[in-house]
């Protein structure tokens, strides 16, 4: 494994799919609780404004670079990330390995019926895979329903718990409950159940191989357009930060501050 590549405060594990899978399987074998997050550029940007989210992400055991934007931005940083490891692909890799073991999985998240459909599909695709339970993701935090879900998960005792509540909810939820959950691998999976169920189509291989999955998503789900505007902003900010400048966009105004003087100011303020 080749260490950490830290981008805008997020310490990504610089690892290939094979390495990420290896660590997951070892953790399962050694029963070592491991929280996996898969930050993409949108999440990195959200964490700049949401301190709790930033701390929660940093608290993950494995931070996998999901999104070609992270890989491209990392090229300007020391220890550039070797490859994109899509959360959705890692999930399927895990399934293909644990289908022949006693390890079981629970799907939490997505709209009513989606996790169920995903579970049926995955159990057909990976014969022997045992999904012991599913629950949709539209429950209230700190509600009796949430308590029942946690109790159900613990009574079923799945070794792998996939949580797809969208970010930052899923990461914050995992951070809040990981200690009381029995599962060994707890992973934030975003909209993966939508993909695994077949409700959302994954980009064809051409787009994936050319780092254009984001473009496919844009043309097939134009409603995401506004969300995706954050991608170029992320690239500019990530590169700026690498070279010591904090670049911010407010309306049609751009502000550029030198990071070093910022830091000096902060240090002075601390001393005062
Ligand atoms: N979701 C959920 N509960 C919520 C909000 C969202 O289960 O309170 C689910 C939603 O149904 C979808 C996923 O979380 O399956 C978020 O998908 P999105 O494509 O936005 O996530 P991404 O993969 O881009 O992080």
Verbal overview:
There is one protein chain. With 272 residues, the chain is an alpha/beta fold. The protein folds into two domains: 4-219, no CATH class; 230-271, no CATH class. Helix content is 49%, strand content 17%. The protein has 14 helices and ten strands. The strands form three sheets. The chain has a six-stranded parallel sheet with strand order 4-3-8-7-5-6, sandwiched between helices. It has a two-stranded antiparallel sheet with strand order 1-2. The site of uridine-5'-diphosphate has 14 residues, from helix 9. Uridine-5'-diphosphate is lined by residues 109-111, 137-138, 164-167, 169, 190-191, 193-194.
Short description, anyone?
By secondary structure, the chain is α/β, with parallel strands linked by helices. It has 2 domains: 4-219, no CATH class; 230-271, no CATH class. It has 14 helices and 10 strands.
Task: Give me the secondary-structure topology.
Blueprint: E1 4-7, E2 10-13, H1 17-30, E3 34-37, H2 41-49, H3 51-58, E4 62-63, H4 68-74, H5 87-98, E5 104-109, H6 114-125, E6 130-135, H7 144-156, E7 160-164, H8 169-177, E8 185-188, H9 192-196, H10 205-209, H11 213-220, H12 225-228, H13 230-242, E9 245-250, E10 253-258, H14 259-271
Helix pairs in contact: 1-5, 2-3, 2-13, 4-13
The structure holds uridine-5'-diphosphate (UDP).
Uridine-5'-diphosphate (UDP) binds next to helix 9.
Percentage beta strand: 15-25%
How confident is the prediction overall: mean pLDDT?
A: 93
Low-confidence stretches: none
- Counting helices, strands and paired strands, the structural category is alpha/beta
- The tally of domains stands at 2
Largest sheet: 6 strands, parallel
Record field, number of beta strands:
10
User: Which shape, going by the Cα principal axes?
Assistant: globular
Radius of gyration, rounded? 19 Å
The number of helical segments is: 14
Helix content: 40-55%
Order of helices and strands: EEHEHHEHHEHEHEHEHHHHHEEH
Identify the bound ligands: uridine-5'-diphosphate
Termini Cα gap: 42 Å
Strand order of the largest sheet: 4-3-8-7-5-6
């Amino acid at each position: 494994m080749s260490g950490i590549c830290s981008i805008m405060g997020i310490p990504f594990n610089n690892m290939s799919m094979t390495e990420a899978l290896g660590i997951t399987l070892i953790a399962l074998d050694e029963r070592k609780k491991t929280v996996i997050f898969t930050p993409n550029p949108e999440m990195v940007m959200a964490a700049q404004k949401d301190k709790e989210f930033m701390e929660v992400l940093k608290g993950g055991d494995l931070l996998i670079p999901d999104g070609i934007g992270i890989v491209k931005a990392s090229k300007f940083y020391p220890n550039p990330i070797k490859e994109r490891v899509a959360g959705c692909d890692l999930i399927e890799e895990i399934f293909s390995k644990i289908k022949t073991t006693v390890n079981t999985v629970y799907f939490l998240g997505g709209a009513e019926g989606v996790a169920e459909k995903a579970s049926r599909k995955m159990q057909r695709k990976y014969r022997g895979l045992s999904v012991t339970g599913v629950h949709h993701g539209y429950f209230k935090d700190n509600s009796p329903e949430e308590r029942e879900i946690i109790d159900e998960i613990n009574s079923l005792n799945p070794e792998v718990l996939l949580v797809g509540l969208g970010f930052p909810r899923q990461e914050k939820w995992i951070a809040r409950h990981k200690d009381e959950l029995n599962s060994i691998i707890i992973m934030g999976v975003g909209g993966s159940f939508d993909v695994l169920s077949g409700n959302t189509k994954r980009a064809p291989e051409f787009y994936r191989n050319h780092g254009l999955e984001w473009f496919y998503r844009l043309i097939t789900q134009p409603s995401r357009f506004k969300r995706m505007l954050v991608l170029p902003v992320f690239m500019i900010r990530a590169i700026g930060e690498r070279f010591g400048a904090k670049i911010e966009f407010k309306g049609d105004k751009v502000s550029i501050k030198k990071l070093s003087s910022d830091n000096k100011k902060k240090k002075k303020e601390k001393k005062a």
